[in-house]
User: Fold these one by one.
Assistant:
Number 1:
Amino acid sequence: MKPIITLAGLMLALTATVVEAEPIVIKFAHVVAEETPKGKGALLFKRLVEERLPGQVTVEVYPNSTLYGDADELDALSKNEVQLLAPSLAKFEQYTKQVQVFDLPFLFDDLDAVNRFQKRAKGRQLLRSMEKENITGLAYWHNGMKQLSATKALRLPSDANGLAFRIQPSAVLESQFAQVGAPTKKIAFADVFASLQNGTVQGAENPWSNIYSKNMHTVQPYITESNHGVLDYMLVSNTRFWYGIPHSIRTELEGIINEVTYAVNRAAEEANQAHRERIRQAGTSQIIELTAAEREAWREAMRPVWKEFEPVIGADIIKAAQTVNRKQRD
Ligand code: SIN
């Protein structure tokens, strides 16, 4: 018997086709400038997605906290009001304590060591550590090692005593500065420049690209090249949204993310060096290079933070992070 195609059936099939043809919209919000490693990564992601999945996926990029900022972006992601974010690793404390390993001062010798940890099993495991909160980590993106900027020259830990520092919302960072007698204020990235300019805080910690792109060097006369910690990102999506994307499209997106991650990570070190040089040429801040002994003094002063946070981060994770330095230390 021949199948009977009714008008209603035909309408339903047409509607389904129309619905299927609607592109998936990915809103990607972040808080930094477009010329930073993350800013460039977001734009490259948009370009590659729209070249390779035309009509299937569109990407809207919102830089500089123009859609969501530090205070509300993760909440918006968990409600699927935004589909991609790349918050700095210090901003996940509310969702997982383990990721705080990245905030421990002087744990990683350099960005290569950070990279090795992120590629190993423990590092990869952290990408899945927030799935019960409906947040899935898709990749790590580098920015760079943090430098200390201030209204006075910081050579030794005692120089920081009594200066107020802006920090990201991380208990580890709060404790890191407490070790050197420095009070802290948790301030959203969008407000850091104004807080330094109007004296709400006298210091901050940032990689070169964030200092330069937000003009912090124009209001901080001293920058100590301390490389005392890392500021990297986790590219995250809403778990239900991400796994709801049709498999073939998601696979293509994952391939693009791998490609963009490679590009961002290669460009990050270069961008930070270039931005350090521009700051030096601007001449508004003195860049202080520490001697090995001075750096060791900062390390010794801040080191108690590791023990303090071991119970919440996990001794196994801290140990795994320590083993990625070329020269392993206690
Ligand atoms: C960012 O790079 O996304 C901002 C980091 C910060 O809040 O310092």
Note: The first strand starts at residue 24 and ends at 29.
Number 2:
Amino acid sequence: MRAQPEASHFIDGVYVEDEAGKAFESIYAATGEVIATLHSATPAIIDKAMAAASRAQLEWASWLPAERARVLRRAADIIRARNEALSELETLDTGKAIQETLVADASSGADSLEWFAAQAASLSGESVPLGDAFAYTVREPLGVCVGIGAWNYPTQIACWKAAPALACGNAMVFKPSEMTPLCALKLAEIFIEAGAPKGLFNVVQGLGDVGAALATHEKTTKVSLTGSVPTGGKVYAAAAAGMRHVTMELGGKSPLVVFDDADLEDAIGGAMLGNFYSTGQVCSNGTRVFVQKGILEKFLARLAERTAKIRIGDPLDPETHLGPLISKAQHDKVMAYIEKGKAEGARLVIGGGVPEGEAFAAGTYIEPTVFAGVTDDMTIAREEIFGPVMSVLSFDTEEEVVERANGTEFGLAAGLFTKDISRAHRVAGRLAAGICWINTYNLTPVEIPFGGVKHSGLGRENGKAAIAFYSQLKTVHVALGKVDSPY
Ligand code: NAD
């Protein structure tokens, strides 16, 4: 199986190669096959991309907002028309099940382009009366924004960054994760087809060093990273040195609280979605599932029953629920956490191993895994695992669970299941998280802001809130009378 792109990078409207850059491989996680070989961006490639973006941004910002909106909408239409091919590529790039990529990746990217197209056409400032003067504000683009992606949602992440950035009149240089370099190149092609100026959206490939070079490039005005907390710390510090704007979409260890009056089937469904979707490789996953003691045994029994039915296997088979982990390194890291869970005294309810059989031999598969009897101090309850591993903890009271749920450096997401409407809002108000779901989990429509508090990040993607992170206000003060000067 091959998915070799025409060249590694997409700059100024065309594919570009520079074989002087270090070669790296894109591997299909289900089989271990090398599906593409790419070259990391050299300093010359980075400069070329930044110069192209800089030129294109000036042109783009001079277009009428409605014209910019039209390009974004066309790009959304093209993505939808090609959803099948793009989803297949995403499955090859990530190893995620095709039944997911068909509905959650390219289509979510299209949603965001369409939604921010509408925002582009309606961006405006305000007018402030000041007696013998008045002022007005203008929302201006930042310039060239750098986007750096994680590997779990390569198309969605590229679109979630590009859509608000371009809507506000910026250009973008995007560096996908080195694990999933292929999908963003297709998006770059689509923007050109949709009528964007050449250079408006460029893709350069590479590892962390390329990301670091982009984050500190003299032409970069903003860095938007989706990645882990340690990388976020480095990128934030690097961007700060040049007083650059940032959006940091980082990791989590989110709590999902199930009260004993919850609809049991819904709560279990939410917990499974929040731990096993994308083979557990979702930043907002509710990996600490706190279940009130009255329903704990029933919850675990039914959870095990439903988890046993998860179909693990070939990600290109539409019946498959759970594909492999992104890489051998991630597989081994998750297996080490499972071993740690056992060693520290958590009780394995189901899973915990590598599925057996010829079909799984070359892939990086791990069974969906549930631990019970997990306590707050265990490693699996404290660190982000980023794999299909659910930790179930028990609790007695609302007061206790809120305190324990908040007892983490992370604060990306939270969820709760209860039928008590007052308790639902009370607890949502007290959970320290950027997004909190009541009686559902992990829904991220583009209309609502998404992002973390505490170490999970800064800024917001999606929703109207994202506009503030891809634009800046200029205030113009206009005198209507004489200058009142004592000199
Ligand atoms: P990662 O931090 O290893 O890498 C993310 C990106 O940063 C990659 O493109 C990488 O090449 C680049 N990078 C690495 N070092 C860099 C540096 N010093 N300077 C600039 N760029 C650098 O993350 P990952 O393993 O690809 O993704 C998994 C992590 O991403 C998890 O922690 C997950 O929670 C998080 N994530 C967060 C969100 C969110 O929206 N909050 C979404 C998806 C994933």
Note: The domain at 9-251+456-474 is CATH 3.40.605.10 (Aldehyde Dehydrogenase; Chain A, domain 1).
